[in-house]
Amino acid sequence: MSIFVDRNTRLLVQGITGREGAFHARQMIEYGTAVVAGVTPGKGGQKFEGRVPVFNTVADAVRHTGANCAVIYVPPMAAAGAIFEAVDAGIPLVVCITEGIPVMHMSRVMPFVRSHGARLIGPNCPGLITPGESKVGIIPGNICTPGRVGLVSRSGTLTYEVVNQLTRNGIGQSTCVGIGGDPIIGTDFIDCLRAFQEDPGTEAIVMIGEIGGTDEQRAAAFVKERVTKPVVGFIAGQTAPKGRRMGHAGAIISGSSGTAEEKLGAFETAGVDIMRRPVDVVALLEKRLGALSKR
Amino acid sequence: MSIFVDRNTRLLVQGITGREGAFHARQMIEYGTAVVAGVTPGKGGQKFEGRVPVFNTVADAVRHTGANCAVIYVPPMAAAGAIFEAVDAGIPLVVCITEGIPVMHMSRVMPFVRSHGARLIGPNCPGLITPGESKVGIIPGNICTPGRVGLVSRSGTLTYEVVNQLTRNGIGQSTCVGIGGDPIIGTDFIDCLRAFQEDPGTEAIVMIGEIGGTDEQRAAAFVKERVTKPVVGFIAGQTAPKGRRMGHAGAIISGSSGTAEEKLGAFETAGVDIMRRPVDVVALLEKRLGALSKR
Amino acid sequence: MNLHEYQARALLKTAGIPMLDGDVASTPTEAEAIARRLGGKVVIKAQVHAGGRGKAGGVKLARNTAEALDHATQILGMQIKGLTVNKVLVVPAADIATESYLGLVMDRESQAPVFMVSSAGGVDIEEVAAKTPEKIVRLAVDPTYGLLPHQALTLGFSLYRDFNQVKAAARIMEQLYGVFTGNGCSLAEINPLVTTPAGQVLALDAKIVIDDNELFWRPELGLMRDDSAEEPSEAAARRANLSFIKLEGNVGCVVNGAGLAMATMDLVKYYGGEPANFLDIGGSSSPEKVINALKIITTDPRVRAILFNIFGGITRTDDVANGIVEATRQFKVKVPIVIRLTGTNESEAIRILEKVGMTALSDMDEAVQRVVQLARKAA
Amino acid sequence: MNLHEYQARALLKTAGIPMLDGDVASTPTEAEAIARRLGGKVVIKAQVHAGGRGKAGGVKLARNTAEALDHATQILGMQIKGLTVNKVLVVPAADIATESYLGLVMDRESQAPVFMVSSAGGVDIEEVAAKTPEKIVRLAVDPTYGLLPHQALTLGFSLYRDFNQVKAAARIMEQLYGVFTGNGCSLAEINPLVTTPAGQVLALDAKIVIDDNELFWRPELGLMRDDSAEEPSEAAARRANLSFIKLEGNVGCVVNGAGLAMATMDLVKYYGGEPANFLDIGGSSSPEKVINALKIITTDPRVRAILFNIFGGITRTDDVANGIVEATRQFKVKVPIVIRLTGTNESEAIRILEKVGMTALSDMDEAVQRVVQLARKAA
After folding, report:
1. Which of A248, B206, B223, D262 could form a disulfide with B151 if both were Cys (CB 3.0 to 4.6 A apart)?
2. Full-prediction pTM beyond 0.90?
C-alpha cells in the first residue's frame, strides 16, 4: 500500500520534449511508471521515445489517454500556467518539479487548485515515489525499496541521503514524498501525515523538515493529536544564520520564527523521535518498530 | 410561510445615510421590517432616526447586531464593493437595489458570492417582500397582502402592477421577489421557482419575464421537470425591436435569441399558463386555484 | 455604446494587436491622400452604426488612388438605413489566405466573458451559429483569474495548425481580452481575423460595444460617442437622461419603469394600436423629466395620441402630474393625452390635473384602450 | 533581493503614495545641496542593507545646511555591520503627530499577501508582535480578487479615527498593494506611516524586498541590485549561479541540494567543527560550477579544510569529480579536500579521482568527521 501514487497512476509529463522533461520521462518509464502521455504545445502528434504520444494541450492528452496524474518540468516562467492547465483539465494530482516559480504566482495558483479539488505536490520538489510501483518526479529509483515506512521531506538530496540509509539497512518505504522547499507549496506535512496515518501499508513515518516557516510546528501538533504511528523527525539548518535564504526559497528564519530549535522543541512535545544526524534514522526506526518492519 | 425573508430577517442597510437609503430605510421600518443596523463608512456611532445604530463597516454591524440580511443602496461606482463587503462579513442574503453597476463588476462579484455560499438578489432590482412580515427593498408595502401566491419578476413597476391586481382581487402573496433587469444577476427564476416549490406556504407561482437572454426558457424547462404547483407567466417586450436595449441592461434581443415568442413558446411547452395582459393574472390564477387561494 | 470601426481599431492597436495600417477620412480628398500613402489599392469603408454596410454599397475596393477618390466621394454623405455616412475608413486591400472569427462577449448565462472562435470567419457569425454551431468554439473565462495561457493557446489551436500562427492567435486573444476588460466592453470582435499568404495573422475588421454603465468611470470613452450616428430624438432623450427608443407607430408612451413600459407597448399592440416609442422616465422622476419626455415625443409628427402610464412607487404621481401641467403650459400639445396613474400621492395628482381640466384613469387596460381609440380616430 | 530605502521610496512614489520630498547623495556636497533645497532641517540616512542604522550612527538629524554637510561627511564611508556606506538619503525632518506601522508580506501559512497594520509604529514591529500581538491587525488578501475596497477601509479604521485620515490610509494600502504585486515583492513596508500635526498622512520610511524568482521577469528591478552592499564572495557566487552564504567557521562545504547542504553544516557542527559557508551547487551541476565553487571558498583565508558532499541523483558525480580535478589543475588548493560522493556514475567518478591520486568516501558521517579533524589539525 502507499499514498497518492501506485500501479494505477497514469502519468502525463508536461514539458516532455524539453531537456529535463525528456531525461526524467525516460527514467520514469525505465522504473516502470505508466507514462501514458506527454504535452508540449506545438509538438502534438509526435511520439516520445517512439511510443508515448505527445499532445498540444493537457485537455487533449486526458481525453485520449485517461491520464490521472501530471508531472511538470517546464521552465519557471511557464510553470504556474502549466499547473493551471493540468488542474483545469481535471487532473486530480499534479506534481510540479520546477524550481524558481515566483511566490506571487503560487499564491494565485493555489485558490484555483483548491477550488477544483485537486492536489498539487511542490513546486520545487523532487516528486514522489511508491517503490516498485510508480515514480513521479526525480527521486532516484535505485535507492528506494518497497516496505512500510512513509517518508515526507521538504528537501531533495537530503531525502535521498535518508532513503539510502533506510534501503541499505533493509528498511523499505511505502511512499516517499518530497513536498518542496518553497514558501508556498500545494501539499504540506500535515497532508502527508494524514495520508500515511490512514494508509494501512505504512507502519512508521519519517519527517524531514528544515528551517523557515511553521509547517513543522503545525505538523507536530497534528502528530500529537491524530497520528498513532511512530514518527521520526529531522530538521536541517541548525547552524543557519538568521534572515538568510538557505538555497530553498522557503528556508529562511524570519526574526525569531522558523528556527531549528523551535521546530525540534515542537517535535519533542509531540513525541516525535528526533534524528540528530541523518544516519540516526535507522536506529530510531528499529527501536520503534523492532524486527517487524524489516520486510 | 415564505421564501428568503420573514419575521426572523434582521436587516442591515448599506448606504443608510444616503438620500435613497434613508428614504427606503424609513419605509421598511414603517412596514415593520426589523432594520437592526445601517452602514456608512465614516458615520459609525451615529443613530439613524434616533434608534438604528450606524456602523463604519458591515463586519462591525454584524458583530454588534447579528444582522442576517443586507440591502444595498449605494451609488453604482461603490455597489460591487458593497456586495463584496456584505458577503465577506458572512451575510447570507444580500439584496442589491442599485442600478447601473457595470456588468464586468458583476462578473467578478459572482464567483465571490458563490464561493462564500451567499445569495445575492439583484442588482438593479426592487428587492423582495413577504407581506406582513418583512420588506427588503423598495416594493410598495401597501399594494401587497399576505397569501399563498409566490411572485418572481425581472421588473419593478410591472411587478407592482401585477401585485396590485392580485391584492385588489383578494389574492394574497407568500413572497414577491424582484430579481432584477441586469444581464448578470445573483438569483434567477429557477432559484425562486425551486424555493417556491419547496415552500409549503406557496400554492401557485407567477413569473414575470421579459425579452433578452434565456433565463425564462431555462426556467420553463425547470417548471416542466420539477414544479408541481401551477405557474402563470408573462413576458414583456413583444413589440420590442431587435438589438435595442429596452431600458433594462438585460432587456435586449441579440440576433434571434431572447425574443418574446421564444420565451412564450417555452412557457407553452412547459405548461405555464400565459398572461397576454397583466390583468389576466387574476382570471388564470382563479381558474387554477379555485376559491382556495382567496385566503 | 457602439464604437465605429475606426475607433475600435484604435483600441486594438493600442493593445498591440497586429493590423494593417489605415486611417479615417471625412472628405474625399482626405481619403485620396490616405489611399496614396497606402499605395493606392485600398478598401473604403463607411463608418456608420448599421449592419449590412457592404450590401448597401458602403464598402468598396479601389484599385488605385483615383478610384479611391471616386468611391470616397460616393460613400461620404450616402444614407445607410437612415444614417448619413460622415466618415470613411481607408485601409490597404489585404491578400488573404484564411478568414476566421474571433469574438469576446459578456455572457449572461455563464456570467463571464466568453470567447467565441471559429475558423469559418468573414461571414455573419450568427448564421454560422445557427447552421453549423459545431464550427464555433466557446470558452468562458473566469474573470477572477483572467484568460489563462493554456486557454489562449487552446483557442489558437482551434484556428490554426501552424504553431507560429497558433501562438500569434493566442497572443491576439490575450490582447483582445485586455481590450475587453480594460475598456468595459460588452462585446469585442475581430471579424475577420485573417492569415496572409506569407503566414502573418492580422485583425482586419473590429467591432466594439462598451457597456453604458462603464461610461461614468471612463469619460474618455464617452467622448467617442458619435451623436450624428444616432436617431436625433434618441440622442436628445439620452442627453435628458431618458431611456427612449423610437418606433414606427402612432401612440406615444410615457411610462415609469422599463418592464412596465414594454408591457404598455405590448398592450397598445394587443388592443390594435401601434406604439410610437419606448420611453422610461425612471424611478425618481422630476417634473423636468416629464416635460422633456413630452417634448421629445411631440416632435414625432406620426404621433396621434399620447399615453402616460405611471405606477407610483418611488415615483410620485403628483410630480408627474405637475410635469404634465407645466409642459402643456410651456408648449401646445396638439394630440390628445390619456393619463393613467395610481400609487404614491395619487389623489394629490388627480387634484393637480383636475385643476387644469385634465382627468386621470387608474386602470391600465382602460387607459390603453382609450388611447388606441383616440389615435385611430386622429389617424 | 533587498532594495535600499531610496529605491523603495522611488517605487512608492511612482505609485502615488504621499511622501516627503527627498533625494539620494553619494558625496557630502551633494547631500548639502539637497539639504539646502529642502530648507536646511533634514535627516541624513545611511543607505546600507543592515538593521539598526540609527544605533550605529547612520541616521542623523541636521538642523541646518552646515550640519547636513557635517553629518553626510561622517556617514558616507562609514562601516555599518561590515558594509560601507556609499550613499545617503536626505529628507526633510518631518513634524510628527502619530506613527504607525504598515507592512505587506507574502505569508506562507495563508498562502497570500497579508497586511500587518499597527498604530504602534516607528519601533521594531517584531517587538510589538512578540509583546503586544493584539496591537497588530492582520488581514490576508485573496490575490485572485486583490485588496477589496472595504478591506482597505477596515485597515484604515484600525489606524485612525478621523475619516479623512482613514480614507488617506486606505488609499495608501491600495497603492502599497499595487507596488507589492506590480513588483513581485515578498515584503513591502512603510514604517513609520505618520500623521503630521496638520493631519496629513505620509510614508516616512520604506522597505522593500523583491522575490528573487521575479527578477527573471523584471530585469529593470535587477538593475537596482547594489553589489557593493553585499559580501564580495556572495556577490561573486551569485554571478556564478551558486547559492552561497558566508559564515564564520573554517570548514568549507560544497554540497548539492539546499537541504543536504544545511544538514552537512549541521553535521560539521555536531562533530565539533564550524562550517565556513553554505554552498549549494544545484541539481545539474557542470564541472564549471565546481571550479567556481572552489575558487570562491578558497578565497576565504579562514578555511582550513574543504568538504565535498555529493549525493548523485540528477547530479552526475563524475561531473563533480571532473570539476575537482580541473580546478586543482587550474589553481593550487592549499587546504586538504575531503570528498564524499555516492549515486549516479559513482564508480566513474572514483576512477577520475584516483587517476590524479585523490580518493573519495561514500559515507557522509565518515567524511564529515574526517574533514573536521583535518581542519582542527590545520588550525
Report:
1. B206
2. yes
